[in-house]
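Marked as duplicate of an earlier ticket. Keeping the data here for the record.
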Amino acid sequence: MTDVSPVPDPVRDRWREPMRRALDEAVRARETGDVPVGAVVLGPDGAVLGLGHNTREATGDPTAHAEIVAIRAAAAGLHDEWRLHGCTLVVTLEPCTMCAGAIVLSRLDRLVYGARDAKAGAAGSLWDVVRDRRLNHRPEVIAGVLPDECGSLLTDFFRGSPDAG
């Protein structure tokens, strides 16, 4: 019998554990009826600086996307420093235009995401705001970390799966 283990991918493999943390956050969003998207901001040393999940339904705030919530938490923890130099945002779904703008403006060094968003993605799918050369900051983008797990959580939610909450 042949071993069918996945081929190692050093670029994405190092982000698997932080993505699992973001997936835990996504489940929290689902529990309140929000679209299950989760995010984690990691400091330069890999420490968690901010966690977030969608809370639009729970709070009535249209800007309460997982990325925004996590970025706000990270900046608040840095006390008077809004620039997230050296930090990485790990999120289960490719960011929308609002979140992509926040990523650029907060000066995050890196964006890591799981599932692509062909309908609203602004990190390469529909638009590419985060790498637009006209902007003064362009984070590194690493796509496709645990994409199946991230995508199935969303698919189950929108199909109304019993596992969706």
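See parent ticket for discussion. The first strand starts at residue 38 and ends at 42.
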